[in-house]
Amino acid sequence: MPLRVLCPGCQTAYTCPDDIRGKKLKCKKCERVFLVGGAVPPKAAEPAVQTVPTRRAVAPPSAAAPPRTAPVVGRPPPLLALVVGGVLALLVVAAAGAVGVYFLAFRNGPRSQAGLQPGGAPPIQDPNPVGDKPDNPAPDQAAKPQAGPDQPAKPPRAGPDQPGVSGRAFFPLPTPGGFIMTPDGVTLIVSQPKAAKLVYYDTADDKELKQVEVDFKPTALALQGATLFAVSEGSAVVHALDAATGKDQKEFDVGGDAVAQIACHPTKGLVYATTVSRKVYSIDPISGSVTKTAALGDWIAVDPVAGKSVYTGVRPAQEDLDNLVIKTDGKGNYKIVWDQWGLRGAIVKYAVDGPDLKFVAVQTNAEVNPYMMCLSPDGKRIMMTGGGGWRPLPEAGPGGGYITVVFSTDNLDSMLGQAPGGTSITFHPVLNLGATNGDGKALGLFNAKSLIERNILQLSRGGSGNPVLLTFGGKGCKAILWNGDGPETHERGLHFIPLDLKEEERAELRKVYGSLPPTPQPPASDGWTAVAGFNDAAGLCADRTTDSPYPLDKTNVLGGDGEPGWASPWFPSPNATFQKDVVFEGDGALHLTGTVNYGRRLQAPQTGVVRVEQYIRVPKGGDICGYVFKGGEITNNTGPQWTAGNGKFRVMNGDNHGDGAWLDALPCQPDRWYKVTVVADVPKHHWEFLVDDTKFDGPPLGFRGAVDALQEINYLVGSQPGAYLDAIRIGAGPLPVKGGS
Predict the structure, then answer these.
(1) β partners of residue 566
(2) Which of 169, 249, 279, 647 could form a disulfide with 206 if both were Cys (CB 3.0 to 4.6 A apart)?
(3) Which residues contact 384 (CB under 8 A, 6 or more apart)?
(4) Distance between CA atoms of residues 299 and 275, nearest Å
(5) Does residue 397 or residue 412 have the better pLDDT?
(6) Under 8 Å between Cβ of 12 and 177
(7) What are the phi and psi torsion angles at 319 (to 5°)?
(8) Beta strand segments in 71-151, E
(9) φ and ψ at 152, to 5 degrees?
(10) CB 599 within 8 A of CB 712
(11) Are 358 and 96 in contact (CB under 8 A)?
């Protein structure tokens, strides 16, 4: 199974073969050499012990210690329990504190929230899977990172004046260095380090507001009142900017190595900064004084309510087994564990004490090979996401899985539950709602209290899972997600995704934000469950936005985003062209050429009588085979199946066991449009076939497989002339038949 790896230095994501575990790789971007999570040759029989205080007397971990309470999601392979040894020195440090930071931190951008590897939201299955292209190939085995060239942000593909049918907006955007959402839930500010710019978006009206050039390369961002704090890439300087204009007002030099992350309470107190060597500094934004605190961490977040607690996330690397020491007051201890799953991330809680931070507690097994840390808006829950999921410590036995475990901030030893997996994760500031980035391919929504999955929205077949930007905006009515740099399609970029909210949820948002963006209205479907028009400006599902829902005269692009009734768009294929020369209705139609399997999944499974109506045109020498099936592999999950070409339509009289007999049905002349209708009775496993409303007069037709639901359509084309498709409509119940033979 491919292994997703993040460089511990610059957070560049790589996809590597599974056998790379335990080997050293060199990052192509920052040239840091690091060890990929996995089994390594044992150095010693005893674990490395680090001194870390707790409020309770805690015995040193040992094989005899009772197992921790752990969620069990499947049984992993036996643990190798290869724990590297050596007792580390105890450092005694006093602590004082300050007031806090607001938002969640990731090394390449604040408030980024994530964690799926490789579990999480499953991709929508399709008979024409497009190979997932990794964000970067394995660093020592192939190529340079495949991120596109940095460029200024471009206008959205859909905007507030002429919204796409789905209500989604898409903005091409190179990799963000950081982001922040203003408290009004409207303005999103994204940093672009290589362009030395800040880009401002109105998430309520779906538009880019402006781009502000700055005299440094901005990365991580934090917001306190009207002041925007920004990290300068590769430097020890933090800039204080006017949040509205982006103008530089003040600079703070923490001294020493480069700043990685910053965070602050939204209205008061000190600003906190972590460095690439895990030092933590407090900055007084009024006096300008900078204090090196007793804390240590890669990520940092502040209690957003009272501001009295600060949390850091520690992501160990292989070299830390011998030298990483969390500075404490000398109570308690814990070990850095390295086994077949990788290194365990730690969450450390500090109390604000003047300009310093005083240790309170630590969770030493928050996640394996962590990606980021997330603190909930109420300050009560905290978690990490990571490539190895959550696993019990070796002495506790098997268990865990590719999950995200949520911990209580009151007691970091207390597990509150398992959140859905994702490469990033975030919580809604008002509603009982959370979101995950499903490896750049899907947006997952879940109940923030029960942690039960609510919905999955498909975004792309090969998006980036880099946990750089995931949040809520549009006055709480939209999810905002960046999933890669792909300006040529709607798949990779910055997505504004309207949420399907209940009226009581919108009422709750009105109490906080006032008037809300209008609810996106799907196009009229005249009672049909799902419609695909293949049009741009005229015809079924058309709108007035250019290239929406279909970019015409283009090949190998995504199309149909937001058309009603579908779980996902049509995905790009080099054999699929949305063209406007041969059309049945509207201004566009689909042209498929061989060889290709091209399919689309319905939003909901159909379990009763379902009808599929489509218009097809087969050129001379062309062909097309249509399937309606449940999903997964086609043979045993197919219901109706038909073909057109060589002068005739043919139908499959299936045996319900994956096979059947082909029967000649009706004539099919080349270069003529035909209305082809399939009426499938799912409970009875029978179906009818009609051409131009004339029913095939033959024996009752059986399903190829004994399926209990139908949820996907698929078209197989084997010839170069191929076939044309237009005006696909799917609905419930039989259609009246005009005549028969």
Answers:
(1) 602
(2) 169
(3) 115, 313, 345, 347, 366, 367, 370, 371, 372, 373, 374, 404
(4) 9
(5) 412
(6) no
(7) -70, -15
(8) 86-87, 105-106, 109-110
(9) -65, 155
(10) yes
(11) yes
Q: Tokens 């957003």 sit at which residue?
A: 304
Question: ∠ CA 40-315-412 to the nearest 5 degrees?
Answer: 115
pLDDT of 724: 98
Compute the distance between CA of residue 310 and CA of residue 361 in angstroms, rounded to an integer.
11
Both 408 and 439 in one domain: the answer is yes
Residue 361 lies in a domain: yes
If one counts every other C-beta atom within 10 angstroms of the C-beta of residue 741, the result is: 8
Q: Which stretch of DSSP H or E encloses residue 232?
A: strand 227-232
Measured between alpha carbons, how far is 243 from 388 in angstroms, rounded to an integer? 38
Which pairs from 549-555 meet CB under 8 Å and 24+ separation? 549/164, 549/165, 549/166, 550/578, 550/588, 551/578, 552/578, 552/579, 552/580, 552/587, 552/588, 553/577, 553/578, 553/579, 553/580, 554/578
The candidate with the shortest Cα–Cα distance to 375, out of 481, 300, 264, is 300
Going by the DSSP 8-state scheme, the letter that residue 280 receives in this structure is E
- Are 394 and 339 contacting, i.e. CB atoms less than 8 angstroms apart? yes
Q: Domain check: are 504 and 604 in the same one?
A: no
CA pair distance 6, 572, nearest whole angstrom: 27
Residue type, 647: G
Give φ, ψ of 145 to 5 degrees: -55, 145
Within-domain flag for 79 = no
d(Cα 273, Cα 101) in Å, to the nearest integer? Answer: 9
User: Mean pLDDT score of the chain, rounded to an integer?
Assistant: 78
End-of-domain residue from the set 466, 482, 513:
513
Question: What is the predicted pLDDT for the residue at 603?
Answer: 85
Residue 205 — left, alpha, or beta (φ > 0 → left; ψ -120 to 50 → alpha)? alpha
User: Quick check: 579 pLDDT over 90?
Assistant: yes
Maximum Cα–Cα distance for the chain, whole Å? 93
Residue 539's CATH number: 2.60.120.200
On whether the CB atoms of residues 671 and 600 are closer than 8 A, the answer is no
Give the span between the Cα atoms of 21 and 338, in whole angstroms.
12
Instruction: Give, for 503, the enclosing helix (H) or strand (E).
Output: helix 503-513
Q: Are residues 482 and 534 in the same domain?
A: no
Range of the domain at 689: 530-740
Of residues 396 and 678, the one with the higher pLDDT is 678
Q: Give the pLDDT mean for 313-325.
A: 72
Whether residue 467 is found in the same domain as residue 391: yes
Distance CA 415, CA 405 (A): 7
Strands 342-353, 338-339: pairing kind: antiparallel
CB 133: neighbour CB atoms within 10 A? 16
**What pTM, to 2 d.p., does this model score?**
0.61
Number of structural domains (the chain) is: 2
Residues 544, 465, single domain; the answer is no
Residue 586: CA count within 13 A, CB half-sphere: 26
Ramachandran region, residue 556 (left: φ > 0; alpha: ψ -120 to 50; beta: rest):
left
Give the gyration radius of the chain's Cα atoms: 28
Pairwise pLDDT comparison (335 vs 599), residue with the higher score: 599
**621 vs 594: CA distance, rounded Å:** 11
**Residue 495 and residue 561 in one domain:** no
Q: Please report the pLDDT score of residue 667 as a whole number.
A: 95
How many other CB atoms are there within 10 angstroms of residue 538's CB atom? 15
Show the tokens assigned to 678: 């399939």
pLDDT bracket for residue 33 (50, 70, 90): low
Q: Report how far residue 712's alpha carbon sits from residue 651's, in angstroms, rounded to the nearest whole number.
A: 18
Unique residue bearing structure tokens 């398992």:
418
* Dist CA 73 CA 55 (whole Å): 31
Residue among 132, 155, 211, 120 nearest 494 (CA) = 155
